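Changelog-adjacent note: as of this version, every example in the card shows the full chain rather than a window. The one below runs 471 residues end to end.
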Amino acid sequence: MSNKKSSTVTTSGTWDFSDEVIYKGTAVQGINEIVVRQISHANEEPSWMLDLRLKALKIYEEKAMPSWGPDLSDLDLQSIYYFAQPEGAGNNKSWDDVPESIKNTFDKLGIPEAEKQALAGVWAQYDSETVYHSLKQEIAAQGVVFDDLSNALKNPEYEALIKKHFAKSIPLTDHKFASLHYAVWSGGTFLYVPKWVKVSEPLQSYFRMNVKKGGQFEHTMIIIEEDAEAHYIEGCSAPKYDENSLHAGWVEIFVGKNATMRYSSVENWSLDTYNLNTKRALVQEAWYMEWVGGNMGSNTTMLYPCSVLIGDNSRADHLGIAFANAGQTQDTWAKVIHIGKNTSSSIVSKSISKAGGLSTYRGLVDIKASATGSVTKIECDALLLDDISGSDTIPEIRCDNADSIVAHEASAGKINEDDLFYLQSRGIDEEKAAAMIVNGFISPIVKELPLEYASEMNVLISMEMEGSIGE
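Full-length structure tokens:
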């Protein structure tokens, strides 16, 4: 790929469009030491980060591909472009400074309007670099930092804090895509909320991938100190090129005693994207962690947000939706590790399969011997819209003490014909009636999403439901 490149415009769907963007210093295809050094140099990183990248690259080269889960044999890691910097990218504080084609993309996605209406701060990444960043002045005055992680790493005030936490919740050796991520990561959010500060309005990041055969490897680090509170929202999308692309972003969350953190996301990658994402939170004493997520699109998704309940009396809730349409595999949901005493967790998973799509709940609850008095509840519900789609439930539950309570229930079924007939008898056509039933099925999760994301999820579900009757 040359240093200056315009992508081809496509308009195959509301979220599938791509943009004509000029790139600078775009990496060659494939991963090797030259590419890793190029990324580190472009981001002006300290030497310890380059050393970490090179160590991760060596681990990546030695590790085998995962032998469990969905088939990844069509993903050619040497065909991916691992770094792409759009011209005009940077920590722009005004939308007027963002290149016009990129700004139009985020306008279509509703990001500027959401910022005006209900957000404390907005951060936008396009391919490998930030293109826009803002934080309300009154929030910044309380010591809150909301920045691009690559940019924050250049600041001596934040470097020591980042070094202390980086790769501490998800080690380089976790799996092959972990080591790959650490070798080539770029961008991502750095959110720091100091003691006793409660940010009542959500902070939002949006990740847009545009390069054909591209990869996006943002690293998000969230540090919420003692008695603090925050809500972080993440959205993702990419155009469709009929060429495989890769998203392997990372989220590391660290929150102190008596703090509350909510992480919401709606991921709507194109049908040629492999979404191999890892998210993990370390939970201290009396801390509450909540994950709310929706997984749409992508060719294959492997995503299992993890809460490690280290402190006594800590709690985690995981709520998620997955929709698998034709040619899609959604292999998702949660992991919770109970270490502290009297810890509690709940996992609620809703999946929908259509036109041959496969949704799989793959979860782990591990209650250690030290986690006496702990409670966990797991609920997995699957809705099949036809006879050719599939749904699997693969729970793994370990309990190493006799003083904890574990409850697990799972269900799978089709749309109730009586409910469909009732709605049709009230003058609602069959396709709209089916969509209403599906929206009712997922409403316990959708209602927990921020308003603009709940609206987006409902629109996406309605689009996915088109033509579902009579297939």
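Structural remarks: Confidence is low (pLDDT under 50) at residues 1-15.
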